[in-house]
Every structure is written in structure tokens, then in C-alpha cells.
Design goal:
- Helix content is 0%, strand content 54%.
- The chain is built from no helices and eleven strands.
- Strand 9 and strand 10 form a beta hairpin.
- The chain is globular and about 40 Å long.
Length: 121
């Protein structure tokens, strides 16, 4: 079992920055690829970014590439998402997840509680 507890998020103006954190506990952090997904009102949950479990390779959705950075701190067992140059269309509930390292939410077994990011224009 892995427990994921998110923090960060909030309200920011367009062009601003936020950092999301996802603290893990339970089974070894290093055993899992980690990812961020998001869900806007009335829309399906979508992939944002992932980081692999061994070599920390990263992969991003085209919509956030060049603006968002995913990273992990193994000593702190924490996952991060640095979001820069935020746009109103980034407004959503953001979720961290632990699993097998694809862009499909079906491949992730453990999920954080979600945190709201709202970007005003």
C-alpha cells in the first residue's frame, strides 16, 4: 500500500506559478513510477506528466510541455509539479498517482486526494 497526500495549489493569475507536492508513505517510493493527472469541471481526467521509477525519465502532455516540470525527491519520498506560465485552461483539480508509468490513469493504483488549481485571466 502507498498513501499519497497532496499539498499546494490555489488561485493564481495567468502567467503566474504554483508548485504542487505529493508526499508518500507506505511501500517504497522507488518502486513506482509517479504521475500527475488533472480534471476540469465537466471533463474527463487527463494525463499531465509522469516520471519513471528508475532513471527519472520524464514525459509531458503537449499542453504543458515547456511550462510544467515534474520531479521527485527520493530522500523526502515526495513528488512535485512545478507549474509556470499558468493559463486559465490549466484550471482543474490535480491528482498525483503511483503506478506503472504510462499516460493512462488505468495503470495507476494509488491516488492522492486532489488539489484545486484555479488560474484567473
Amino acid at each position: 500500500q502507498v498513501q499519497l497526500v497532496q499539498s499546494g495549489g490555489g488561485l493564481v493569475q495567468a502567467g503566474g506559478s504554483l508548485r504542487l507536492s505529493c508526499a508518500t508513505s507506505g511501500r517504497s517510493f522507488a518502486n513506482y513510477a509517479m504521475a500527475w493527472f488533472r480534471q476540469a469541471p465537466g471533463k474527463e481526467r487527463e494525463f499531465v506528466a509522469l516520471i519513471s521509477k528508475v532513471v527519472d525519465a520524464t514525459y509531458y502532455a503537449d499542453s504543458v510541455k515547456g511550462r510544467f516540470t515534474i520531479s521527485r525527491d527520493s530522500a523526502k519520498k515526495t513528488l512535485y509539479l512545478q507549474m509556470n506560465n499558468l493559463k486559465p485552461e490549466d484550471t482543474a483539480a490535480y491528482y498525483c498517482a503511483a503506478g506503472r508509468g504510462t499516460d493512462s490513469q488505468r495503470e495507476y493504483d494509488y491516488w492522492g486526494q486532489g488539489t484545486q488549481v484555479t488560474v484567473s485571466s
